[in-house]
Amino acid sequence: MPSDIQVYRAAHIVTLDDDRPTATHVAVGDGRIVAVGGSELEARYSPASPIFDDYVMLPGFVEGHAHASEGLIWNMPYVGFFDRRHPDGELHPGCTTVAALIARLVELESGLEDPGTTLFAWGYDSIYFDDKPMRADLDRVSTTRPVVLYHSNLHLITVNSVALQRAGIDRDNRVEGVYVDDAGEPNGELAEFAAMFPVFRAVGDPIFAEAYGAEDLRRFGRGCQRVGITTAADLYSDLEPEVCELFDNTTREADFPVRIVPALATTRYNLEQLRERLAAISGLGHERLIPGSVKIVSDGSIQGFSARVRQPYLNGVENGIWYEAPQKMRELIDELHAADVKLHIHVNGDEAAEFVLLAFEEAIARHGPKQRHALQHAQMMDRDQLDRAAKMNLVVNFFANHIFYWGDQHRDATVGPEIAARMNPARSALDLGLDVALHCDAPVTPPGPLFTMWCAVNRRTASGQELGGAERITPAEALRAVTLGGAISLDLDDCVGSISPGKYADFTLLRQNPLEVEPMRIRDIEVAGTMLGGVWQPLRPGSRDR
Amino acid sequence: MTPFSVIGGFLGAGKTTLINRLLQRPRTPRLAILVNDFGDIAIDAALLEAHGGDTIALNNGCVCCSIGNDLGRALGRVLDSTTPFEQIVVEASGVANPGRIMDVARISSELEPAGILVVVDAGAILRQLEDRWIADTVAAQLACADRFFINRLETIDGAGRAGLQTRLARDYRDIPQVSDADAAWSLLAADNPRKIAPRGETAAHAPFCSRSLVSERALDPERLRAWLDGRGDVYRIKGWARLAGGETRQLQYAGDRIAWTPAAVGEPKQTRLVVIGRGDLPAADAILAAITVGEAAESATGGCRGAPIRETRRMPDGD
Q1: Between A325 and B53, where is the model more confident?
Q2: pLDDT digits over A14-24, tens only?
Q3: Domains detected in chain B
Q4: Which of A149, A517, B160, B259 has a CB 3.0–4.6 Å from the CB of A521, allowing a cystine?
Q5: C-alpha angle A196/A217/A498, rounded to 5°?
């Protein structure tokens, strides 16, 4: 009996491995899965503790599209509309009315000792308020210190009179992005770089000016682990030498709780520089840090009216903006595909998807099939586009959480009910044979694969209405999407994503089986802990979700 | 207030070429030019003063700064410079609307607007304005210009020039067109109410080149000296050198003098140097081979650590 192999027992194991879909025992040696089966494994290997008789074991969740800045942003107090948990579990109740928001800010203000300190807070989204808070409301928080409220998308801030005054912004000194009230006075809302710059110049900027440190990355890891994630993509990174060093050192720490998959962002680099960066990081990596892929951001966001779309937005905005020049994308896709580099392409709008599909069709026609690339967000892709993606063996990673967080707004304010009903079309994609993943895009929405599953299975908006029921998928399909689907989207399905011999012993332990509970209850299931490489990481008391 | 100009234009229009000329004009104000990347910035070797991580300093007083991810941070750094700059120029990205960048000078008390120059590729612009994907982006860039710099006019014939001029005059009637880089700059400078004083002369050009070296091997000071003596094309070396005893020292080479200073606590325990010179320097690994001793594997462009997990994996349906 090999003494270094131990066998774990659970009430039920959902393997996501078609060769053996369910089991009760899994043998683990040297951090990897050795065998999967029933009680017969107890005779072959030594028993391990703990015994998970009260738990359902799943493959560790794979979050295919998040950002490590989820760990940084909590350096500021959260005042968003929805309840949200700190990566360490503390519940921050949502501020659902202007009165509640102001009361929360007043409370935070009273905790600041130095009268010169600026009060910063984040997470607010004006889209949920009819009577959005303005300068006058923030003046009730302080008339002596600057108050700066970051919107959740980080493209806008709302500030009080002191901040406007220090920035020198008034009715006579304003530009596009400085919003005004009926009397022509700035109302405190400032959009985009130019309008926000004088405020940041005057009072500082804790988000854009700071690079994240080791503790921020650890906090990101803990936040992932708390919701059952064992592999998390950080899908936009410069991977400058200092960042590589930080990632390398931090993820090697004995108790670092997840595998991190950073994708190199193209925004700052031309093709030659990208090749240099890829060469520089080619030796980087270990079992908990897996770089090598490249992320291209093609367009903006739908709720920000900046995604590239094929028909104008409901509010009259003709179209969004390209974040990367189409020519550059075509060149990058061609060259990097030819070099067999794995690509993740952010496509929110359907026009962006159209361009990227054409670029892939050209590249694959020229160089033949190589890596399977991933379309990220893919929110507005129609059936024809999905069909073409399927023919090219692409993977789609849908932003399922959008259905809950912005579904009502997409129906009423951005793209209208017809398109909103087929946003994030997981059913169509699966029917066309595509491999599907689902993601949260943290910090845009909170990490939580069970919640993400719930969104794709039930397609309920924040107001409780069903949005596009025809695109619902089954709990089993959703579970596959947040495990094996995520692994396929990251090209890691040879080592994570299912409980199969040879893969890393990465498991998520739940109190209930998401395939058996009533579908509307999936998001309420309690995560008990995770195993990473065969090491049990129970959730610390008080850090549980719900 | 510092005059603030924006150079815009679609990807490939020739913004970087124009910036290379501006930086090296013999009579130039003390400029800070913020660019998206240094990839194609070519600075006359004789002008080069220093090359930091995100800043290239020239001995004519100009600096070229990388915008990185955050224009606000880069702009703040330039504004906080101990010696104020006479003009700040921002290179807009190829898809950005330069007008939205100029807004910062319209609102900031520290900046004053001094012109948006939009670079137009004479041979491509009419096609771009019809392009299914980018027509709206290009049109928005043109509409916010104070001046057009019509680049590559030599690539089109007389009829083409007439057609281009007619089209631009029809749709952008009030925007002057120039086709000479020096004239483009003079007009941009003229938008600044406080005239810019001429400065010293400079010598002629040779392309500027840099190499990044990273190695676990020890650097041999004598081999470095010998290597430098054998070349005349290295202007600066800076960074950290790991010596044979395991000690790391900071290294600065300039004016044929090598300065060694103790490295601060927390500096890298490896050789990490940037070599800046003229012409075509040898590849990074060839330089390393010439100046280091020992046999540990090294990387010419980045650190090699850990077990490379990706190299051992292949998709079942891979190539």
Answers
A1: A325
A2: 999 999 999 99
A3: 2-190 (3.40.50.300), 208-293 (3.30.1220.10)
A4: A517
A5: 120
